[in-house]
Amino acid sequence: MVTHKWQRAIILVVLIIGSIVMLFPFAWLVSTSLKPLADAFDGNFIPQHLTFSNFTQILANGSAASVGQWLGNSIFSAISTSILVMLLDSLAAYGLARLHFLGKKVVFYVLVGSLMVPFIAILIPLYLEFANLNLLDTYGALILPYTSNAFGVFLLYQFFLSIPKELEEAAIIDGANKFQMWRKIFLPLSIPATATLGMMTFMGVYNDFFWPLVATSSNSMRTMTVGVALMTIGPYSTNYPLLMALTIFSMIPTLIAFIFAQRQLLQGVATTGINI
Amino acid sequence: MLKGSKRLKLLATSGIVAATSLSAFGVAAQAASVTDITFWTSGSPNGVTQIVAQFNKAYAGKYHIDFRAIPYSNETTIVNSALTAHRGPEIMEESLTFSTPYAVQGLEMPIEPFLKAAGINPASDFPGAMWNGTTVSGVHYVAPTDGLPTMLYWNKAMFKAAGLNPNNPPRTQQQFVADAMKLTKAKQGVWGFVQEPGWPAPFEFPSLLGQFGGREANPATKQMLFNSPAGVKALTFMHDAIFKWKFSPQNASAHESYNLFLQGKNAMMMTGAYDYASTSQKLGKNLGFSTLPVIGTKEADFLGQNYWWVFKNPALNATTNQGISLFMKFFYTHSLELARAGVLPVWQPTLKSVAFKKIPGDAAQAAALQTGILNPLITGWGTAGSYLYNNINEALIGKMPIKQALDKAAQDMHQTLYQSLN
Amino acid sequence: MSSISPAIAKKRVRKIGGSPLNQLGSFLFVLPYLIVFALFLAYPIIFGISVSLQHWNPMIGSGGFVGLGQYLGLFNMQSLTAQIFWTSFMNTAIFVVISVPFLVGVPLILAYLIYNAPVKGFFRAIFFFPSILSATSVMAVWAWLLQTQGGPINQIFGLHIPWLVRQPWAWVSIDLVTVWWSMGFNLIIIYAGITQISDTTISAAAIDGAGFLRTFRSIVVPQLRNVLSVVFIMSTIASFNLFAQPFLLTGGGPGQSTTSLSQEIYNQGFGLNHMGSASAMAFMMGLILAAVSFVQYFMVREGRS
C-alpha cells in the first residue's frame, strides 16, 4: 500500500524522532542509576562520579538471597497467572462470541460491568476472603485474584467477533465439533491477541504493587515490586539511584516476556495470510 | 505457529503446576516452644533490623521477634486490613499521627505497664518533648522510638564566596533575611534559600508556627489553631521569602530546594534531617548543619518521629507481655545501632554517651530534641492535614491571601475531623 | 470464498443455537472462567457493595447498617464528603477528556506507521518500552526532568515553564507523561488488530489505487472498530482510575486541582477510616464509568453498521 519511496522516508523519520522522545527519559533513568546518592539529580547527564555500586548492592551479601527470591516469586506468579488467564479467557471469549446459550448476553454485560469497579472497593473483601481461606502469604494469593479479571475475555471477545464467519462454516462442513473449532481455528487465529493478553497479564501481575504488598507478609513470599519499595523508599526520602538500578534490573524478565510475545505477533501475520 | 495440541499440553501442564503450588506453599508451621512476637514498622528498618537480630540471638529458644518492615505510604492499608482479619502485629511502630486512631478506638494497650516492667522511667529516659503530652484521654499508649528534627543546612563554600562567615550561620530572622539576600544572584540562578510551595512545608510550617508561639490544634477543645496570628506570621515569612525579599525563586518544584542545594545553586535549606547523609556525602566539609534559626520569637523544631505501641490481642499473656518488655528494653539499650545507621535515637543514656557524640551530625540533631514540637494527637490528622498544605500551596504560588488560605484550611479540616461520619 | 447453500446455513443455525444439551455444551466453555470470576471478583464485589451500605471502619469492621445513606450523601452538596467527591471527580473527568483521545489516537497512528516501516519489531519495542517501567521510577525521572529551575527540559529548550507547579501546565505534564508511559499496551493491541486484517484486504485496496492515507481511513480504521472499542473503553477505565501520576508528580496540586478521585477514595477509606463511605464513592464512580463506557461502546459499534 505504501508505494512511494518518499512516503517510506517520511514514516521512517517520524518514527526515529518518536523513538528519541521515547528513550530520552529512560536515558536519564540509566544515567541516574550510575550515580552515587548525592549526585542523583545534580543536573549532569554524564555521571561525574560513575559508579556501579547501585547494581552491585542489589546482588551484594545479605540482599542477594532476598532479591533472587523476590524475583522468583514475581516470575512464577506472573507466568502461572498468564497461562491460566490465556486459557480461561480464550475459552470463555469463544463461548461468548461464537456460541449460543441462554443468558449469554447477561453474562457478557456482567463481565464488562465488573471492569468498572475500582480495586479499592474490593480490597478489604478480597483480603478477608483470602484470610478465611488461609491463603494469605501464599502463591495462591499472588495468582488467583488476577485470574478473575474480565479484561481478557472482553479483549478476545472483540477479536473473535472479527474473525470471518466463512472459516467457521467451512469447519462445520468438515464435521468439526465446537471444541475442535476453538482449537483449530479460533485459538491459532487469535495468537497475536492471545499473546498480547498473555504479556499484559504477565506485566500486570509482575508490576502489581498494592495487592502483593497487602497480601504477603513474610520475606520469602515478597514480590520484586514490594521488595524494591522496601529497599529504596524511606519515610521521608527515597534512594533514587538504587531505585533506578533496581528498575533496570527488574525489567529484564518483562523484556524477555515482550520479546517472546513479539515472536507470536509476527507469526500471527504469517498465519493470517493463508486464511482467505 | 505452535502446533495446536502441543500448545494445549503446555497450557494444561502449567495450569497444573500453578494449581499444585497453591497447596504446596501453605502457611509455614512455627516451632512450639519459642514465644513469637510480631513487630511491624513503617519507619526506617535501618538499625532496627540489626537490633532485632541481636535480640533473637540473645533470647534464642525463648523469644523470637518476627520483624516486618512496611512501606511508609501504605502503612494504614496494611495494618488496617490485618486488623480487620484479626491478624495484626503485637508491636507496631509508626509515626505519632497514625497511632492516634487505634488509641481512640480502644485497640492499644496502655504502654506504661510495659515500660515499668522493663525498668524504664519514661520521664527521665526519653526527651521531655517526646513524652510529655503524648496521651489520648490522659493515658499514655505510645512510647517514642526515634526522632527526626527539622534542621538548617547551609553551604559553607557559598557563604565564603558571598563574603559571609561560613561558620556563623544566621540565628535570627533578621540575619537570615540579610544573609539570604546577600547569597542570591537571581540572574545566574543562584538563591539564598528556595521556598518550595509544596514540600517541605509539613516540617517547615509547624516549626515556624511554634517559633512564633502558636500550635496547630488543641485536641481537647477540637479547635484548629494554626490560623492564629502566629500562623499568619509563619506563612507570611515563607511567602515574603519569594515575593518580598525575593531570595527564593517563584514556582519551585518539589525537591527543587534539595536538588539546587546539591548543585551549589541554593545556599540554605530548612528541612528534616533526612537529607543529612546525601548532602554531607556531596558537600563534605562545606556542609553546615544545625538547629533552626529563630525566625519567630523562640526556638522550636518540628520533629518527625516514630512511636510504638502494643495492640490489644487475645493472644497476649504473661509470657508474651514479658517478652515485649524485654524487647523494648533491649531495643533502647542497643539504640546506638540506630545512630550508626543514621537514625536518631531518643533514649537519654544513648544520647548522652560518648560513642553517640562522636557520630557526625547526630549531636546537632540531638540538640533539636530539646525544643522539639509534635503534631497534635487527633484521629485523621495526617490525611486532613492535606487541606492545610494545599492551601499553603495556594498562598505560596500567590493565588490566595495568607489569612484566607489558613482560615479556609482550618474550616475544612475541622469539618473533616469532627463533623463527618463516625 | 463461495457463498454457502441454504441447507448448510440451516445446519449451522441448528448446530450453534441448538438444543438445551447443545447450549449446555456451549456454556461449558464459559464455565471455568465463571468459576474464578464468581470466587475472586463477584463475591468480593457483592461483599464490597454490602460494605458501602454500612458504616465500616477498617480497623474494627461494621459499625451498623445505613442503607443508601452514603450514596445519597454524595448528592448533599452541603457535606464536605460530597464536595470532595465531585471536586476530585471533575479533576478526574478533565484528565479523562484530555488523555483518552491521545491514548487511542497516538498509538493508532503509530501502529499504522510501524506496520508500514522496516524493522517493525524494533520500533514496536521502542514505543512499548516505557510501559514496562514502574510508576515510582518513571515519575521520579519525569519529576526531575520537569523541574522549574534546574530541570533538563526547561534548560535544553531555554524555557521557564512551571510544569508541575501551575495550571494548566500541571495537566499538560500529567497528560504528556501518561501518554508516554502507558500508550504501549494500546499500541500492541491495535497492532495485533492490524495484523489480523488480512494482507489480501490491504493489498486489494492498493490495487484499487487507494493511497497510504485512504487505506488508513477507509480500510484500517473501519476494520479495527472492534479492537478500537476495547482500547477506547480500557483507556477510559484506566484514566478514570488515575492515581500514581498526580500523586508522584504534582502531589495533587497546585492547590488540589490535580487530586484524583482514586486518591480521595483512598484517603476516605484508609486515611479517615470511613471505609463504608469510601466504598460508596468507589461504586458511584463505577456506575458513572459504566454509563460512560456503555455510551462509548454503542457509539463505536453503531458507527460500524
Give a brief rundown of this model.
Chain B has 422 residues and is an alpha/beta fold.
Description:
The complex is a heterotrimer of chains A (276), B (422) and C (305). Chain A is 74% helix and 0% strand. Chain A is mainly alpha-helical and 276 residues long. In chain A, helix 1 packs across helix 13, helix 3 crosses helix 7 and helix 12 runs antiparallel to helix 13. The radius of gyration of chain A is 23 Å and the shape is globular. Chain B has 422 residues and is α/β, with parallel strands linked by helices. In chain B, strands 1, 2, 3, 6, 7, 10, 11, 12, 13 and 14 form a 10-stranded mixed sheet that branches. A two-stranded antiparallel ribbon of chain B has the order 4-5. Chain B has a two-stranded antiparallel sheet with strand order 8-9. The longest helix of chain B has 21 residues. The N terminus of chain B is likely disordered. With 305 residues, chain C is mainly α. In chain C, helix 11 packs antiparallel against helix 14. Chains A and C meet through helix 1, helix 3, helix 4, helix 5 and helix 6 of A and helix 1, helix 2, helix 4, helix 5 and helix 6 of C.
Strand and helix map with partners:
The complex is a heterotrimer of chains A (276), B (422) and C (305).
Chain A: H1 5-33, H2 53-59, H3 61-98, H4 104-114, H5 120-132, H6 139-147, H7 151-161, H8 165-173, H9 178-189, H10 191-207, H11 210-215, H12 224-232, H13 240-250, H14 252-272
Chain B: H1 4-24, E1 35-41, H2 48-58, E2 63-69, H3 75-84, E3 91-94, H4 96-104, H5 112-117, H6 122-125, H7 128-131, E4 135-136, E5 139-140, E6 143-155, H8 156-161, H9 173-183, E7 191-193, H10 201-211, E8 217-218, E9 223-224, H11 229-243, H12 256-262, E10 266-272, H13 276-283, E11 287-291, E12 301-310, H14 318-333, H15 336-340, E13 344-345, H16 348-351, H17 354-357, H18 362-369, E14 372-373, H19 381-396, H20 402-419
Parallel strand pairs in B: 1-2, 1-3, 7-10, 12-14
Antiparallel strand pairs in B: 3-12, 4-5, 6-10, 6-11, 6-12, 6-13, 8-9
Helix pairs in contact in B: 10-11, 19-20
Chain C: H1 6-16, H2 20-52, E1 54-57, E2 61-65, H3 69-72, H4 80-115, H5 120-128, H6 135-145, H7 152-156, H8 169-196, H9 199-207, H10 212-223, H11 225-240, H12 244-249, H13 261-271, H14 275-304
Antiparallel strand pairs in C: 1-2
Helix pairs in contact in C: 2-14, 4-8, 4-11, 4-13, 8-11, 9-10, 11-14, 13-14
